[in-house]
């Protein structure tokens, strides 16, 4: 994630799908062509609940909180399985923390207050640190069949360190992070809604959408100047503080967590915003900073029209649309949009990354020009 060269290297090695025979980039734990899950990941089994844990360094079972015995025996790799249909998105209401989380998984110095969010990859809790500051404490997903592997465990630290150094008014702050007893992040607590909450209600007013877009574009541009690529720009990853300022969260975590996700988890919000090269780098070229430019285009399209440019009930149909279908001009969906918005969005969403904007600063300038005319 730290620069184009490092990112491009991740696509040079891969694995072969046992179902369709296609070569798959190493960053995926599923085949984007047929949905088959990679089957060569070793796990240890909890002696109490019998569930698999995909990390040899975990000291506790994240399902029941049982401390690992001297050395649990590694079980055989999990059987490959094809992806289910699009899962329902569950919006978690604040609740008391689960006992296992409170007792065994909460890092030292923090007190969990309530669970405030749950997504395909992680659970988020409102918490208080030793100084009494309210934070958002984020853990890898608890209670699902996958956790991050030992290799990703190390990458997590690297990505968290980079994110913590991104100081920008439109980027969620990282206060602290660690890996014991499992990886965790202590983040700036955002009291407002997410952009996802806003777009679910329909298209945003043009001026409001442009104002949000300019600020987010500035944050992405700032990160790119330091060689940092997000890889998962989407409405759920834009949060608002109590003054209505938008901030991007989950920097770098996509690359780490997508390695351990099932295709169904990936599809929940993420694949809809994925650039063609993220789905098939052999066809569209290696992943670089322009995947963020594409993801930003999807998010902007969503704000202006109330819907993503590509969507389907089937995972594979959605992938096909993203890679081969042209998006409908947004002004044909939202008749009140200025025609010039079509040109900007269609350039952002170009299949070939060479045809997109070269840099987010150019995107920001075009958006500012449109905003000035309103």
Helix content: 25-40%
Output the CATH homologous superfamily of the largest domain.
Transferase(Phosphotransferase) domain 1
- The chain-level structural class is alpha+beta
Count of spatially separate domains = 2
Q: What is the string of helix and strand elements?
A: HEEEEEHEEEHEEHHEEHHHHHHHHH
Terminal-residue CA separation: 37 Å
Radius of gyration: 20 Å
Largest sheet: 5 strands, antiparallel
CATH architectural group of the largest domain: Orthogonal Bundle
Total beta-strand segments: 12
Report the portion of residues in β strands. Answer: 5-15%
Helical run tally: 14
Assembly state:
single chain
Low-confidence stretches: 1-13, 73-100, 143-147, 260-269
Q: Largest beta sheet: what is the strand line-up?
A: 6-7-8-10-9
The CATH topology assignment of the largest domain is Transferase(Phosphotransferase), domain 1
Determine and state the CATH class of the largest domain.
Mainly Alpha
């Amino acid at each position: 994630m730290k620069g184009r060269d490092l990112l491009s290297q991740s696509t040079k090695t891969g694995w072969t799908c046992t179902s369709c025979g296609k070569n798959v980039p190493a960053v995926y734990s599923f085949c984007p062509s047929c949905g088959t899950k990679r089957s060569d990941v070793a796990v240890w089994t909890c002696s109490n609940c019998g569930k698999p844990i995909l990390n040899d360094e975990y000291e506790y079972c994240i399902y029941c909180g049982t401390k690992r015995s001297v050395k649990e025996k590694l079980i055989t790799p999990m059987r490959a399985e094809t992806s289910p249909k699009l899962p329902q998105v569950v919006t978690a209401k604040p609740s008391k923390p689960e006992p296992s989380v409170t007792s065994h998984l909460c890092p030292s110095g923090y007190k969990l207050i309530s669970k405030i969010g749950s997504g395909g990859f992680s659970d988020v809790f409102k918490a208080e640190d030793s100084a009494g500051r309210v934070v958002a404490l984020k853990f890898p997903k608890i209670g699902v069949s996958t956790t991050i592997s030992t290799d990703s465990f190390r990458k997590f630290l690297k990505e968290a360190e980079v994110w913590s150094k991104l100081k920008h008014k439109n980027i969620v702050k990282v206060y602290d992070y660690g890996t014991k007893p499992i990886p965790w992040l202590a983040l700036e607590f955002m009291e407002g809604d997410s952009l996802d909450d806003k777009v679910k209600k329909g298209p945003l007013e043009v001026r409001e959408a442009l104002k949000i877009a300019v600020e987010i574009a500035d944050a992405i541009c700032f990160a790119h100047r330091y060689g940092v690529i997000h890889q998962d720009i989407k409405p759920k990853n834009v949060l608002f503080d109590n003054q209505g300022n938008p901030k991007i969260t989950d920097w770098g975590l996509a690359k780490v967590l997508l390695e351990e996700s099932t295709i169904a988890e990936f599809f929940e919000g993420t694949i809809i915003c994925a650039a063609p090269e993220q789905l098939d780098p052999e066809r569209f070229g290696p992943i670089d900073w322009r995947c963020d430019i594409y993801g930003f285009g999807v998010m902007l399209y969503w704000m202006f029209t109330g819907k993503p440019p590509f969507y389907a009930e089937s995972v594979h149909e959605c992938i096909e649309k993203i890679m081969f279908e042209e998006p409908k001009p947004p002004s044909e969906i939202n008749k009140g949009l200025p025609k010039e918005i079509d040109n900007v969005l269609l350039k952002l969403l170009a299949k070939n990354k060479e045809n997109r904007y070269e840099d987010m600063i150019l995107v920001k300038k075009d958006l500012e020009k449109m905003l000035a005319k309103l």
